[in-house]
Every structure is written in structure tokens, then in C-alpha cells.
Amino acid sequence: MRHNFGIATYAVQECLVVYANRPHTSGPRPALEDVHPNSLKAKTANHLMIRNFPPPAVVKWKSRDGTPLEAEVDIGEIFKDELVVHETSREEMSEYTPMVNPDIIMEINDRTINVYMKAFISLKAPRVEGNPHSDYRQDLVLAWSRTY
User: Fold this and answer.
1) Edge-to-edge, what's the strand order for the sheet holding 2-10?
2) Residue 44 vs residues 4, 85, 101, 110: alpha-carbon distances, Å
3) How much is the pLDDT for 40?
4) pLDDT of residue 22
5) CA–CA separation, 83 vs 71, rounded Å?
6) pLDDT average per 10 residues of sequence, the chain (148 residues)
7) For the chain, counts of helices (H) and of strands (E)
8) Alpha-helix residue ranges (DSSP H) falling in 5-145
9) Distance CA 104, CA 117 (A)
10) Cis amide bond preceding 53, omega within 30
11) pLDDT at position 45, please?
12) Helix, coil or strand: residue 51
């Protein structure tokens, strides 16, 4: 199995995440409430095709007030069952959902780290009547959270 990975940062002065030997960096970022309300929901991963699961992500950041923080986040432990996390009922789900690598999004928001999964799930019927292009869901689902 493989997955994709990306970060979203809010209310931080700076941030560095190293995951699967790749650094993800961010400079000063405003609070989530100060940017577009769908900013986090629209986030996608930019590090693709990572084999499940490399060593824990190392996160170093400065919170909104300038406090330096550091954490290790074990993505493999969070998703140890290797199942796709989603909010679609079996009754709604099409049996023809393609095997697409899910996105794992790590949000660093001031002193809190949230880890989400976003996966493409085909539906049996469109969500919007008359719109054949609404026959899927790709929800951002919270899988883990910790405040430091």
C-alpha cells in the first residue's frame, strides 16, 4: 500500500516537517479563521506514492506566540490497520471505487497537530440530482489530534 502526504499550517511563525526523508516547510502563516473557510478542506498532498509506512514524521515549529515546539508523529501507528478512513456508508459506496492512494494531511495549527485522511470514494448515485459529476466523495476526515 502507498499514500500521499502534505502539510497545512496555520497560526505559526515557521514550520518544518520531515517525513519519508523529505522536508516540508512553511513560513509565517495566519490563523485558519483569517483565511478562506475552505482552505483546509481544499488541501491536497504534494508528496506522492509513499510506501506504508516510513519512520515517524519529525515536526519542528514556532507557535503563534513564538514558542519553539517539537514532536514526532507516527503516521504508521495512526493508520496501523492500513484501512482508508472515510465517512461514506457502504450503502452509498460504489463497488467500482478505483484504487487511488489516499492523501494524509498534517495540519499544524498554533500548538495543535491534526492528522487527516482524504480519499476518493465513488458513489452509486450522484450527490446532486442532475449532476453526473457529483458521484464521489472526497472528505477530509480527522484521524488523530494532539495539542502541545
Assistant:
1) 47-51, 2-10, 103-109, 112-118, 140-147
2) 9, 16, 12, 20
3) 87
4) 97
5) 25
6) 95 97 94 83 92 98 97 98 90 84 97 96 88 88 98
7) 2, 11
8) 39-42, 75-78
9) 5
10) yes
11) 94
12) strand
pLDDT of residue 52: 95
- Residue 70 burial by CB count (10 A; 0-12/13-18/19+): exposed, middle or buried? exposed
Residue 142 is placed in which grid cell?
A: 480527522
Residue 10 CB: number of other CB atoms within 10 A?
A: 21
For 11-109, list the strands marked E by DSSP: 12-19, 22-26, 47-51, 57-63, 68-73, 103-109
CA distance 31 to 138: 24
Predicted local distance difference test score (pLDDT) of residue 65: 96
Burial of 98 (0-12, 13-18, 19+ CB in 10 A): exposed
Residue among 70, 73, 53 nearest 62 (CA)? 70
The per-residue DSSP string of 118-137 comes to E--EEBSS-SSTT-GGG-EE
pLDDT digits (tens, 9 = 90+) for 54-92: 999 999 999 999 999 999 999 999 999 999 999 888 898
Helix (H, G, I), strand (E, B) or coil at 75: helix
